[in-house]
Amino acid sequence: LYFIGPPPPHPFPAQLFPPPCLIEKLLYKPSHMSSLSGSGSLYVGDIHSDVTEAVLFDVFKDLGPIISIRVCRDSLTRASLGYAYVNFQNPIDAERAIDTQNHILIHERPMRIMWSQRDPATRRSGVGNVFVKNLHTSIDNKALYDTFSSFGNILSCKVVFSDSGESKGYGFVHFETEDASKKAVEEMNGMMLQDQKVFVGPFVKRSQRQSGLLTRFTNVYIKEMLELDATELKEKFSKFGEVTSACTKREPRLDKSFGFVNFATHENAVKAIEECHGKEVEGISVNGNKLYVQRAMKRAERDIEIRKRFLAEKARRQFPPANNLYVKNLDENINEEELKKLFGAFGEVTSCVIMREFNNKQTKGFGFVCYKKAEQAQKGLLEMNGKMFGSKPLYVNVAQRKDARRSMLELQYAQRRSMPPHAFMPPSPGYYNPMYYGGVGGYYGGKGMPFSGRGGKGASRGMSSRGGYTRGGRGGPRGGGAPQRQTQTIHQKDPESGVLTAEALAAMSPQDQKNALGEQLYHKIHSSHPELSAKITGMLLEMDVSETLNLLESPAVLEAKIKEAMVVLKSHESKSES
């Protein structure tokens, strides 16, 4: 007999049966338990920039109670950094998330899940990390994970992809223990994966790899060469040893050729560099040019090297030697030879150039003179500044970079705006404006010539009892019409506490600028002239702020100004005694 009709009702109501997700949780047994699984905290990497906390919650909510989810973002732009942290209440749920949700696609990008490692030393040590290369382009994170999971617990597994989503052919597998990584290297190195022989070896840090390249490289890069093909280039360099391969390329934009030669041994490559680099080699180098032969570098390594050179050049330009002079007010009929002959009387001139217009080559009225030594440049500055040459007086100063000069001009502009209308303008370089210092008690003007004032016996009173020095005090012009300046104490600071910059001074008030410059100047002058350091400091502080800052950056210029101040002080004392 066959029963026809609807099935009889179930003896138990459906509410008594647990939902399928709970049955899965009750029957779940983790495939592996890591030593890091006690926290229940997961690291989720390689996520799309559009993935938010809500998207991740929808992915992990069915696995168990979640304490928190945080997508790490940039502090300024608030853009996603490509990774997040998910904290489960139960470590078993976190273990199941790794087994079931790892490498699934979110916004068409596979995410990578691993246990969160709070200790950075564990991540940076490289213990248990394996490098795999020569991978087929079809192998992704999951396929690599499945291939190596039989050797032990895997903390992280990643295949490196380009921005376009194509595999670069290499990846990394981080095992929990070093024994598992050694076993994977022994059994998988040289194996065939997707018809390609893969290389599997211990991970080596970039710094260690680069240091080892210098002792075992065989590939050589050649430029400034003739337009040769690969066969001709191989024949030319075969005299240094066995050449395994060679190739040449041409850059149409620069109209230049370059090539690569790979030798069988490191010694042969070194021999080729020693005998060809920086020399004219017949049949290889371009006529009149020296051949460039050096170790071939990868793009990433070359970018690092270029950046190092750029930073070194930037530091050199930021604190340049004071041997380059800026000369302006040049006559239109003056050429480089006449300018070099004029400044050559003070020392050896390495280069001399007058700036001209690009179209008609007409002079712009300024140029640069570079001496071999800074002392020679200082002598040329002192002798030639203000001297008539042709029909105009020359303006000579230490050359500055454009950004540094702009900062100083902004500083001067801010200072002048804060000055009262009756205050006189700053002097030109090398010219002492009328200045007053409490210890000397007189006015100084012109090229350091003293005017009459109240005596110099109280010069030692320039030192403050609080360890600084005072400006103002006794003394003033005869006639008593001008009010005396109030005494102000400038406290000493450690000269190594910091370096003053034009940007920092621009943010200060004029009085604070004088205080900061005075503290730095006093310590520099006190080391060589302790008895007169307070007087000389006060004299130099009456210069323009930008020129005073230049003294701190150029020891040779500072020493010359100190000598000028010493001459002024001795002349004043001799006249006072007479």
Q: Overall mean pLDDT score?
A: 76
Report the sheet with the most strands, covering strand number, pairing sense and barrel closure. Answer: 4 strands, antiparallel
N-C termini distance: 147 Å
Write down the oligomeric state. single chain
Q: What general outline do the C-alpha atoms trace?
A: extended
Show unreliable segments: 1-5, 10-17, 25-29, 422-497
Task: Offer a quick outline of the entry.
With 578 residues, the protein is an alpha+beta fold. It is extended, with a radius of gyration of 38 Å. It starts with 19 loop residues before the first helix and ends with a helix.
SSE map:
Elements: H1 20-27, E1 41-45, H2 53-60, E2 66-73, E3 80-88, H3 91-101, E4 112-115, H4 120-125, E5 129-133, H5 141-148, E6 154-161, E7 167-175, H6 178-188, E8 192-193, E9 196-197, E10 199-202, H7 206-213, E11 219-225, H8 230-237, E12 243-251, E13 256-263, H9 266-276, E14 292-295, H10 299-318, E15 324-328, H11 336-343, E16 349-356, E17 363-371, H12 374-384, E18 388-389, E19 392-393, E20 395-398, H13 402-418, E21 435-436, E22 443-445, E23 449-450, E24 469-471, E25 488-490, H14 502-506, H15 510-526, H16 533-541, H17 545-553, H18 555-577
Describe what this molecule looks like in 3D.
The chain has 578 residues and is an alpha+beta fold. It has 18 helices and 25 strands. Helix 15 (510-526) runs antiparallel to helix 16 (533-541). It is extended and about 100 Å long.
Kindly list the characteristics that best describe this protein:
578 residues; alpha+beta; four-stranded antiparallel beta sheet; 18 helices; 25 strands; 34% helix; extended; disordered N terminus
